[in-house]
Structures are given as structure tokens and as C-alpha cells.
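User: Teach me something about this protein's shape.
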Amino acid sequence: MVDIDRQLNVLNRILNATDDEIHNVDFILSQVREYGITPLPWLQELGEEAVFTENGMIQVPGEFANFCHYLVDMKIQSAIEIGVYRGRSSYFICAILYRNNPNLVYEMVDIEDYLDGYEEFSKILPCLKKSIPSTTDDYKGKEYDFVFIDADHSYDAAMKDYLNVGRFAKKIVCFHDIFAHEYDSCNGGIVRCWNEVGVLTESLPKMIFAQFPNRWMGIGVIVNKGKSASIGVKGDFEDIQEKAKSFISRIKGVGKVYVYGARNDSRRMYDALARIDICDCSLVIKEDSENPENVINYPIAKLDEIRKDSTVVVCYRDSLVESALVNLREIEELNVVIVDEKVASFI
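Assistant: First, the predicted structure itself:
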């Protein structure tokens, strides 16, 4: 109860903060530290002055404070957090949003009810709505201004949460633990999910709040600043998956495969082919200017060295496809496969 009383005081301080205070990231950070952090050993080793308690948030104080600071002025009427566990991070995020959005409804979704203190916290945060037990299957296609994904960190589960709810976010979708490589064994985990969603939403701005990028935790944010009504659209992921499946069927068993060019798009495709055990593969260029980064750690052949019956994959971005095809037309009997540059990220 001591923790709950202290945390309620912190949230009341946030709700009643002056504009100067709430726009000061140091103020928010001080509230995060006082609110309490779960005592994971590596977090304690940071040497930060914070309350470490089992009833705290599982967050890195600095990155979480900066994330909350980013949310301060957002106009959010509807929010859903998927995977709330004991609710401590949820209550804090909710308080940040509720201060500026009195009509907010903050939905808390999880498969089991581990919440403690919900009755106490909901008295000062009447916008809270406990929807437990439930999963995103229960909200498929429903639109929210704000979506926070922090449930099962396997790739399949995280992507399902995105497809069910995240891509329909009207303003912002957030992923927790985008650098949590401890889940890589779960079909690529949340790291793979974040990367693929980034490709699907390549035209939208991204923000990353991370104190330990490529090591621990991290919060990834995608903001809908385009003309679309939502972050993604129904069928976008399914469409790229179908393209990837079709592409793989076209090149399986064709023998030697070349990927045209040595730029990032081409190298990504080469790496993707290696993942599906197409080992007889190489990059191919017509002249050295097509290898502007002087890549040396990939096999690279010259166009005039390859056999006429070779298969050449072109996965350049649109602005470079035609120039590649001009060069490839100089060689007869090539099997040229043109593929969406995004496909490599989904193989």
C-alpha cells in the first residue's frame, strides 16, 4: 500500500502540473523515478537515483520519460494498451494523456488480470477501462487514436496485435521492447516485427526512445502524418506476404541467381536469399559506379561475365529499375525477375 500511495501522489502531481512543469522532461523524469522502477539487475547498475520496487514499472527511466514528454500535447480521445501486466506503466501513460484530454478512454487489454491497485488508480483516472481477459482478436479492425503494443513478444503474436489493431491507429502506434533481442528465437521476436512494420509504413515518420539501442528495451513510435485515415491499411501486410511467396516460388530451383546492383536494396535481397538457403547467389553490376559504397564483403560479379541463361533479380527502388533493365537488355536470354523492393524484408 505504501507503493500505491506514493504512486497516486505522483500521478496527482502530473495531473495538476503547470504547463511549464509538464513540458519539462526533467520534471517527468523525476516523477518516473519517484513512481518506481522494477529492480531488474541491469537497471539498478545504471546508478540512477530511483525507487526500485517490485510494484514499479518495467521501464528504463530516461527513455520512458522522454517518451511521455513526447505525448504531453497529443490530442488523444481513444487509447488501447495491449499487454498491461500489473498496470504500472499504463497508469503513468494514462495520466500524461488524461491531463490534456479530459474525454480520454484508455482501454487496458491482457489475457489475465494481474492488475493491482486498479480501484485506487481508477478513482483519479476515471478514463481507465479494464478489458481483461481479452486479446486484440476481440478488437480486430477497431480504430483508436493511440495504440501501445507490449504483450507477447514473439514475432507472430506482436505482428498479430499490429494487424488486428495497430495498423488501424488513427494517430500513433507504439511498440515496447523494439531492441529486446532476447526474443529473437521466437521467430525473430518483437525486433523483427518492428522492422517489418517500419517497411510497411516507410513513408511515415518514426521516433525511437532508447537508452540502450540494440541491447535492451526501447520504445518505437510511428506517427500518422500522411493523408491516410490510419497508420496502415487493411491488406497491406497480406499483399506483401503474397508477393514474397510468389517471388520465392519463381526463383526456387533456378540455379545460379544474381541480384542486380550493390546498393542497400540489393544487399538486403542477397541476405534474404541466403536466409532461405539459396546459396548459389551473387550481386552483379555493369560497372564500378553501381557499387558506390565499395562493398567488399559480398560476392560481386560483372554483368559481362554471367551466363545468358542466368536469373537476375531486380529489387531496386522505382527510380533505378529502368536503368537496371536497360543494362540487362544488352544480354539475351536472361531470366529477369522484377520484385518490389520491400519483399526482401519479408522473406
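Now, about its shape. The two ends are 50 Å apart (CA to CA). Residues 22 and 276 are 50 Å apart (CA to CA). If you'd like, I can walk through any region in more detail.
User: That's plenty for now, thanks!
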